[in-house]
Design brief:
The complex is a heterotrimer. Chain A contains seven helices and ten strands. Chain A is of the alpha/beta class. The chains are: A alpha/beta, B mainly alpha, C alpha/beta.
Amino acid sequence: MNGSNAVLVDLTQCVGCGSCTVACKLWNGKPYDKGAPATGLHPVADHSNWTTLTQRKAEKDGAPAWRFVKAQCMHCEEPACVSSCMSKAMRKTEQGPVVYRPDLCAGCRYCMMACPFEVPKYEWGKVIPSVSKCQMCSTRLAHGRSPACTDACPTGALRFGRRQELLGIAHDKLKTGRYVNKVYGEREAGGTSWLYISDIPFGQLGFKANVTSESLPAIAEHYMRKTPALLLGGAALFMGLSKLIQRKKAVAAAEEGKREQ
Amino acid sequence: MNNSGILQFDTTWGGWRLRMTPFRAVLAGMAGLFVLLAAFRLLTGLGASTNLSDQWPWGLWIGVDLTAVALAGAGYSMCVMSHVLHIDDFHGISRRGMLISLLGYVFVLLTLILEIGRWDNAYTPFLSWGHASPLFEVVIAVSIYMAIQVVEFSEVATEKIFHSANRYVQLLLPAAFIIGAILPFGHQASLGAIYLLMKGRLHPLWWSDMLPWFFLATSFYAGPAMVVLEAIGSAKCFGQEVEMRILTRLARIAAAIMGVYFVAKLLDLARLGQLQGLGAGSFEVPMFLGEMVICTALPAALAFSPWGKTKKGLFIFSLLSIAGVVLNRVNVVFTGMYRAIGSGYSPSLVEWGITLGLLAAVILAYLFVVENFNIFNRQH
Amino acid sequence: MSKSFDAKEKTTIDRRNMLKALVGGCATASLTGCLVREQEPGAKGWVPQQYDAPSNWPPQVRGRVPIDPENPSIVRDDRKCVLCGQCIEVCKKIQTIYGSYALPVKDDFICIHCGQCTLWCPTGAIAEADDRTRVLQALKDPTKVVIVQTAPSTRVGLGEEFGMPAGSWVEGKQVAALRRLGFSRVFDTNFTADLTIMEEGSELIERLTGKSEAPLPQLTSCCPGWVKFVEYYYPEWMPNLSTAKSPQQMLGAVLKTYYAKKTGIDPRTIFSVSVMPCTAKKFESARPEFNAAGRYWKNDGLRDIDAVLTVRELALLMKEAGLDFASLPEESYDSLLGEGSGAALIFGSTGGVMEAAVRTAYHAVTGQKAPALAFDLAPVRGLSGVKEASLDVPGHGKVCVAVAHGLHNARTLLDRVKAGTARYDFIEVMSCPGGCIGGGGMPRSSVPPADDVRRSRIRSLQVKDAAGTLRESHENQEIKELYRSFLGRPLSHLSHELLHTDYVSRAKHLKVDPKALEEILAGQVTEASRP
């Protein structure tokens, strides 16, 4: 889905204003919780903080360097959450966002377990809770607009566009030599709709380093595709086996009977 | 022997036997607690009643479910052995496996209803098919299997009530046995497939693309082990002796699969280049060795030793191998995820209460069924 | 504002509704689909209209300024932020801070704490870091002697918080209010404004006459925002900054040394509060070097200023205490540190420090009273961004001075001097437009702050100065007494210990982006930094 929408985050361009987190809350009508800030040194990603901005006190060339890392759903190209959902409450839309449908969700929370980035959160305080995560403003996208966070970014650290195009821009930027030679999200979990470039190694900024570059759904689907055939084949085999053994036994019994006669 | 009293009676009423002992009274109390706690859980939500969090969205109940489904493997493995392979020795004990299995699945179903956040939406997988999800396969297969189990149990039930229906149940039985033998292969394996998506999160000692097959193998031998344990237990409680020869044979079949599983698991670790991980001094290693050596290799060897012909030996065999299956599921759900998820989770009192209370209810149900239906002795 | 698309009725079921539903026997409603189920989570809110376009369309106004969560002066409440972009407007265009540095950032949220954003913020999301609790605690503490000082411009601002017209003169009521709040002494920062003029004026004369090696032009140092600005952007100009501390810090130092000695109060029991029109004063008071009293008494824990309140915070304290402002009597400052000249009073307005310095420096050089011009120094009065004047000083010659307010104007002025197109002996800079009367801690009398409000406040100060008899710092009797009995003379050793300071370069915390800065100064404020 290279024609799908994506966002390129240039971590060198972020000044840490947190406009993205506010735009997210404004647009999505998410409440604020003093105990769970969306920005700062220790923000809390939860059901009402769909995006967080973490201040990282890192180092560059031996000098302290602060970076601000926006985190939200990565909107994988091949999302583990979508393939994990037993009732299709998670879907990857044509336009790029991975969206959640509470009306279909049974609340098994497999998506939370399956997500390699630990993105989906839960409304633990509710009697009938929903999973909660960034929708990449799918309704805005449907109206020809971009996600609220990218709209509000004053420095251009967030850039919205076509994934393929943004990858090109990202690699052009990498050629300047001012960045770490990696586009985070290009391959992670089989590729994501959110892409990051940075001048400081991603590991130092709290990015998950051990995310597989394989498509996770592919691993499960590889298995899933086999099951119907295996089950039908197995049923046939069992049926045959059962009849065969029964017959053998009947024959043996008959012979036994004959011999006894 | 009709002691009256609330805590101790043994009465027959309209053809039904009702027995109460102090032990059963405790179980009944726990079952009552389960009802209260379940109501609390449904009225207050998961956050108020469990210690689950965004870091640990799956906890005790999922661990218990995975374990219970595996142990309820008694149903299908006994079914395969007695109704597909027609091993005559096992005909007499296959109903025990079927009952263990039925009660196990009822236990799992009730736990799941409490475990899912939107129980009001429990029907959605049937309408909106997430066919790429291993969990979808589990849900669909378990649902069908539950129906099969009800049919299988109907055979037993109609011996006592609704006699006229027995004829029709008998018609359904051959198909039920075949489906009941094959279907669990699918969902037992799919339970392992659930964790395929946790690649990179689940510790490499447990994560493998072979995980579905390992889950299948462990559940397949868990069944006979459960039957052996049940047989020894019921012999003690109800005087229903089972021939040692049959139990030893059953245990050795299980032990053979355990041996294959043990070797396959080691080969798989070697294939994935994770054998050296066993040399690491991390806490995962003893958990893994406990599961594989003490609770798999050891009981397998025990079954084939002369001890395998003694009641004591078989008792230890069954306990160890069941512990191995439990430990395996605990390791997959908790131990192996700990490193990736971090910060601890320990089940809340409500979680424990609901699990233990439900377990007590299931044991009571077992006792009632074996006392009222022809489970132990299949003499026509 | 635009409403969200496809906003569906929210049907989240909370605990109470759940019970209600059960009681009403409606639990099956959701199962049978009677309830409208939430189809799409989120998208229940709105964003300002400028964000309702694809983000690659460059708008004029977008986002907000970054604020360090540990900023000692200003805080932001995200709940109130509507991303209107006004903080960026003032920070970038008026103060030339936001957008002036190259990205990536180094290790600082570049901020000079001026607090103009608190005045521009239409929802009050950005406000001063609240120190009221600490002050109230000290006031309740019987072991503490809580002493307060009030800056010149507070007395022409506080009234606005109580519905009075801009610039209303409320000096006496302010003193009365502070006494009623429980402050045991009420002193006037005007007193140390006079002291600043004595020290800074003397320093200027030393530079002018070549007695000191310090360079010309001398730059004023009483505005902490301006001082931090120089430390960030013009570290090479730090030797030009007057070493004299700001009046707030001078009073803090004198209070816990001279005053404590004279009255026999244990300086450790003094809790020194200042009421300021300024948020940067909170930052200034927290600068580690400002513990002159601590050094004097050899007690490291002793800070010169313990807490700074803005005028808005003071007004809130008064409202919380239920003080009826209208019925408060007019009271006077306490003595020893309470007398202030008209020269000190006009410190509160742009050009005021310059005018005050001219009056005293003229006298110091010539031994004569300055000419009438110096008592209504029109060229440096008013709200022009950069103002200049020259004055013939008999026995010395022509002295050229310049005044700037607002840091955009300050940059323009400094760059002119740097380029050699202008030469001055003395430059006064105030960070805030209009000077302290337009400070970030003053009442929000119009949003954004308007020049008519600033003019009213300035006029009020100037009228009082003109009407007074004491209009020169060197004529302040209490200042004379301070020198006579404690400090000796201006620039004495003890003066240096208590009243002078030095500066620290902050250049390593940022990399200036000359191109972006040029565009900002040229007024072409576009989204230049967008790649």
